[in-house]
C-alpha cells in the first residue's frame, strides 16, 4: 500500500463496504446453504422468508457476484457462495468467541466443564494446559477424568462429558473431531537387552520377546494385539499394567520390553534403558479433541475448547 494512502475495503471505493455487511445476513446465508431452502432457513431462524430472500439479494449485490444457484430441487452455493459460507462461519465463530471472552472480563465467568482424557494425554499434554487455563480463568473448575479412547467417543456422544481428548481411532459416535497434537510410539528396552544396540525395530521383531503391556481395553493394547494377529504371531504379554510409569519401571528392572508414546517416555528418567524407533505406520499417532457439537457447548466449555485448540499453536 502507498504510504499515507487511506485504507478502503475491497468491494467498495467509498469505504462503505463494512457498514453493509452484518452478522445477521451472514448467519442467514450460512443457514440457507446448510438447509438448501429459504423456507427451511426461515423456519429455523424465525425470520419471514421474504426477509431472508431480501438479505440474500443484498449480499449478492454487495459482492457483485451470484452466491446461490436456485432450482426446483432447492438452493446450492456457487463457487463464490461456497467460499463465503466458509468465511462467514469463521467470522461468526470469532464473534461468539469475542462475546465469551469479554464476558469473562465484565462479570467473571464461572462454572465447570467435564473433560475426558485418555491415558496418553492426561500426564503429558493436559497438565500445562490446565495450569495456564485455570490461572487465566480462576473461577472455572475443570473435572478431568481418564477414560479409554473408545469410551471417550461414546461418553461425549451421550453427553456424559462435554469435551474429550483421545487418540484418533475408528468409531461410530455422532461427534465432531478436531486435530490436537501428534505423537509417536517408541520401544523401550533394558540396556542389556538383545535389541538395545538397535536404533529402530519393526513390531514383528519385538514379538520374539516378552512385553510389558498397557491394560486391556486401551487403544494401544488393541493395536498391538491386532497387529500381532494379522501377522500370524502372538503377543507375549508377561505383565499387564495400568499406567505408563509402571510400564517404564517394569522395563527398567528387566521384566520385558514395552511400547509407549514418546511423550510419555520423556516424562521419566530411565537409567539402564534405551528408547528405539518403532518402524510401523501405526506408530504415528494423532491426538484429537471431540465435542458432541461445538455450537451447542456451554459458554464455559466453549471457552476451554477454544483454549485447547489454541494451544496447538504454541
UniProtKB/TrEMBL annotation:
It comes from the Bacteria. Keywords: DNA-binding, Transcription, Transcription regulation. Pfam families: HTH_1 (PF00126), LysR_substrate (PF03466). Residues 21-78 form the HTH lysR-type domain. InterPro entries: HTH-type_LysR_regulators, LysR_HTH_N, LysR_subst-bd, WH-like_DNA-bd_sf, WH_DNA-bd_sf. Transmembrane segments: none annotated. One of its GO terms (molecular function) is DNA-binding transcription factor activity. GO terms for cellular component: cytosol. Belongs to the LysR transcriptional regulatory family. This is LysR family transcriptional regulator.
Amino acid at each position: 500500500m502507498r504510504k499515507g494512502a487511506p485504507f478502503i475495503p475491497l468491494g467498495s471505493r467509498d469505504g462503505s463496504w463494512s457498514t453493509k455487511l452484518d452478522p445477521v445476513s451472514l448467519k442467514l446465508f450460512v443457514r440457507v446453504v446448510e438447509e438448501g431452502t429459504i423456507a427451511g432457513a426461515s423456519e429455523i431462524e424465525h425470520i419471514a422468508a421474504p426477509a431472508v430472500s431480501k438479505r440474500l439479494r443484498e449480499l449478492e449485490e454487495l459482492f457483485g457476484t451470484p452466491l446461490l444457484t436456485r432450482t426446483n430441487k432447492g438452493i446450492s452455493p456457487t463457487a463464490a457462495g461456497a467460499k463465503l459460507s466458509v468465511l462467514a462461519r469463521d467470522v461468526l465463530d470469532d464473534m461468539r468467541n469475542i462475546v465469551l471472552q469479554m464476558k469473562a472480563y465484565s462479570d467473571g465467568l464461572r462454572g465447570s466443564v467435564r473433560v475426558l482424557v485418555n491415558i496418553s494425554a492426561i500426564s503429558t499434554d493436559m497438565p500445562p494446559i490446565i495450569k495456564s487455563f485455570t490461572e487465566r480463568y480462576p473461577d472455572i473448575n475443570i473435572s478431568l477424568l481418564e477414560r479409554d479412547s473408545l469410551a471417550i467417543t461414546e461418553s461425549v456422544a451421550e453427553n456424559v462429558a462435554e469435551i474429550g481428548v483421545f487418540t484418533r481411532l475408528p468409531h461410530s459416535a455422532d461427534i465432531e473431531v478436531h486435530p490436537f497434537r501428534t505423537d509417536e510410539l517408541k520401544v523401550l528396552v533394558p540396556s542389556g537387552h538383545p535389541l538395545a544396540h538397535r536404533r529402530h525395530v519393526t513390531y514383528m521383531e519385538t514379538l520374539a520377546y516378552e512385553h510389558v503391556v498397557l491394560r486391556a481395553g486401551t487403544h494401544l493394547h488393541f493395536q498391538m494385539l491386532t497387529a500381532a494377529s494379522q501377522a500370524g504371531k502372538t503377543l507375549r504379554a508377561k505383565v499387564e499394567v495400568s499406567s505408563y510409569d509402571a510400564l517404564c519401571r517394569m522395563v527398567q528392572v528387566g521384566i520385558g520390553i514395552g511400547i509407549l508414546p514418546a511423550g510419555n517416555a520423556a516424562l521419566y528418567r530411565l537409567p539402564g534403558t534405551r528408547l528405539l524407533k518403532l518402524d510401523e505406520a501405526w506408530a504415528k499417532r494423532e491426538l484429537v479433541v471431540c465435542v458432541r457439537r461445538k455450537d451447542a457447548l456451554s459458554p464455559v466449555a466453549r471457552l476451554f475448547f477454544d483454549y485447547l485448540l489454541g494451544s496447538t499453536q504454541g
